[in-house]
Amino acid sequence: MINSNLREKKIRLLLTLLGFLFIGIAAVKAQVNSNYKNQKMTSFTDKGNAAPAANFTGTVWVNMNVKPEEGYNINAGTVTFEPKARTNWHKHSSGQLLFVIEGIGYYQEKGKPIQLIQKGDVVKIPKNTEHWHGASNDSMMRHIAIVPEYDKDKTEWLQPVSDEEYNTY
């Protein structure tokens, strides 16, 4: 009789501890779900806002996906160029990466021929390299542009790409 009472007490204690364990797991799961729901999500497929005419020719849209003030040391945005639209000549002291996700476009470094870029291409632009990029004559082009080491970067916008320069492809 004593052994059965002791056994029942042990079982009750074990069940109570398991109950607290399950309550604790549920509380942690609820906190994780709450944190996830509060996380700001963005979409790189959104068109964004009209790009500043001072730095672009034609119709260009910019959707800033990741900003340095969000705690990341990069500037990343999806840029959509309508046909014939393009950036001005410019350079980044930290370099730039372009991930072409749609369409066909052009990329050119100063003093070199224009290169055709298209969906799936990754363009790795060295630091301080004067360049431009944009859509081809007949196609829109969309890329994700990333400027790394944003805290050290100095982007310098230069003159527009002339029609004569653009049409050398």
Automatic annotation (TrEMBL):
Q: Extract the Pfam families matched here.
A: Cupin_2
Which residue intervals define the domain Cupin type-2 in the entry? Answer: 78-146
Q: Which residues form a coiled coil?
A: none
Xref: Gene3D superfamilies: Jelly Rolls
Q: Which domain of life is it from?
A: Bacteria
Name it: Cupin type-2 domain-containing protein
Gene source species: Flavobacterium reichenbachii
